[in-house]
Specification:
Shape of chain A: globular
Helix content of chain A: 25-40%
Distance between the termini of chain A: 40 Å
CATH superfamily of the largest domain in chain A: Dihydroxyacetone kinase, domain 1
Oligomer: homodimer
Radius of gyration of chain A: 18 Å
Largest sheet of chain A: 6 strands, mixed
Structural class of chain A: alpha/beta
Number of strands of chain A: 14
Strand content of chain A: 15-25%
Order of helices and strands of chain A: HEEEEHEHEHHEEEHEHEEHEE
CATH architecture of the largest domain in chain A: 3-Layer(aba) Sandwich
Number of domains of chain A: 2
CATH topology of the largest domain in chain A: Rossmann fold
Number of helices of chain A: 8
């Protein structure tokens, strides 16, 4: 295992210390590294709280700030955070307007956020994201997995919360954005969890895993590596077929951590052409490594169908460590 | 070779097409993919022009926009762009106030930008960046290599140009920022140039290349992989020793393309602690993969000593594909 680390036991806490130091203008780290929160809260605003296993950075802590999340709870690598983390975060960021939990659809995360909701004695709603069209049930899920589309839900709902929408409205909006969003991924290499010290899965030197999950879970099938155009064709067909409509959309090409920008933009071009063939016009673009799987090489494609409301919230100002515009 | 590409011959042009499509609000692609330029020019402003071999994305095209570059000329992977590219870019962005070329110190780049300067019949000054403290002469250089510190020069000089500084002032400022900036890198794996189809260098499964260049050039030595703290200690000592001063600084931890955010923030924390021991206080941070070496795993550390002028220009608004704040 080749990683820039000191000790597998302290990867998460040292990385969080670095994150909090680098972005001290934006965020504060909770006691015992339980959560990352906005430095300055906005009283009367519904607080948005997310979290999940580490290893997907910048998701979620990189999206804490104006126009997105109020707090994020990081678990150990690929492990759900615990209810006491969410309760501590809720205590820190709830200004009385209630809390919206945004949770990726994995059994551990859903269970722990549910427990926190029951135990925290606050007004809480939950949006569960399940945008991955690759498979129905998976290693850690009942139903579809929540993957890179979670970023879109956090951005859109975050903008609406900033403008003063109430909890019920935000919950409905979050569910609507999730339904308008589909993703699919492909892996060229496995990721390596620090504590495991070896690749999560074996993959041949000329193979790819089509439909991979963001923890290296199996996808649809293992096949020889294809061209970028062929990969984009299959992924966009699965996404567009599942969305079932035409119109304007956000096209988001997401790197898994080990794939450089040059390839991601090439994939964007390949996906853009395919999407147009399905009658979907990409009117906004996002290209970069935002929802990663440690050092896995590969990428995912996410499409969110836009209506005026979703587009307006997507374009609204955001000021976080990993997404920043309009401010 | 595992890459998300179609054909090794068209990697660059397809990636540029994707880049231009994704950022059509910011940039325009020149004919025959010769350059990427700002969509809207600012008449009367000195035009900043950079470029170099592809494979270092987002450098340089990702830094075209308000507050940074006016144009960037991409060569083939790890190959200098040609004088006709620079001349076409100069024609496209010179509004009469002159041009500043920002060139990384590699023999091919320096020669080609020099030829373009002589041939274009315009008022041109050149800033050459050579911030890499690892080695003196290298595979493609006389003198030190220009690496991630180039981003800092482009940002600071770009801000001054936006505020109306003249060519002579910008040239002097660029040279001053370059002198205030030092970098050093470490590789855990080789990069793979698409046209070569195999890793640029062999490296053992437990080794690292200390002082590596951004094309995979040899560094100071090949040694067993060390802890993040030990790596940061050596790199920061080399940087701080060469800078030879104390004070406030920018600390920039740059990923080479195959290293995820989680490790980069851990390295930031390690470097931050070391820097403080040398009497240098990081007052600004940048953490991410900005000056890459295709898919190489590893990172570099860059330190720029800040005075009020440099700090002010660093903080000034920037709106490019890869760096964006204050707008």
């Amino acid at each position: 295992m080749k990683k820039l680390i000191n000790d597998v036991a302290t990867v998460l806490t040292e990385s969080l210390d670095g994150f909090a130091a680098a972005h001290a203008d934006l965020v504060t780290l909770g006691a015992e590294h339980k959560f990352v929160r906005r430095k300055v809260l906005k009283p009367g605003k519904v607080a948005l709280l997310s979290g999940g296993g580490a290893g997907h950075e910048p998701l979620h802590a990189g999206f804490v700030g104006h126009g997105m999340l109020d707090a994020a709870c990081p678990g150990q690598v690929f492990t759900s955070p615990t209810p006491d983390q969410m309760m501590a975060a809720a205590d820190a960021v709830d200004t009385g307007a209630g809390l919206l939990f945004i949770v990726k659809n994995y059994e551990g995360d859903v269970m722990n956020f549910d427990m926190a909701r029951e135990m925290c004695g606050r007004d809480v709603a939950t949006v569960i994201t399940d945008d991955d069209v690759a498979v129905e049930n998976s290693l850690y899920t009942t139903g579809r997995r929540g993957v890179a589309g979670t970023l879109v839900v956090e951005k859109v709902v975050g903008a609406a919360a900033e403008r003063g929408a109430d909890l019920k409205t935000l919950k409905a909006l979050g569910d609507r954005v999730n339904k308008a969003t589909r993703s699919m991924g492909v892996a060229l290499t496995s990721c390596t969890v620090p504590a495991a010290g070896k690749p999560t899965f074996d993959i041949g030197p000329a193979d790819m895993e089509m439909g991979v999950g963001i923890h290296g879970e199996p996808g649809r099938r293992r096949v020889p590596l294809q061209s970028a155009d062929a990969i984009a064709e299959e992924m966009v067909a699965a996404i567009a077929g599942d969305l079932g409509g035409k119109g304007n959309a956000l096209l988001f090409v997401n790197g898994f951590g080990g794939t450089p920008s040059m390839e991601l933009y090439l994939m964007y071009e390949a996906a853009r052409k395919q999407l147009t063939r399905h009658g979907i016009t990409p009117v906004r673009a996002l290209v970069g490594s935002y929802v990663t799987s440690l050092d896995m090489a590969g990428c995912s494609i996410t499409v969110t169908m836009f209506d005026d409301e979703i587009a307006q919230h997507w374009d609204a100002p955001v000021h976080t460590a990993a997404l920043r515009w309009g401010l």
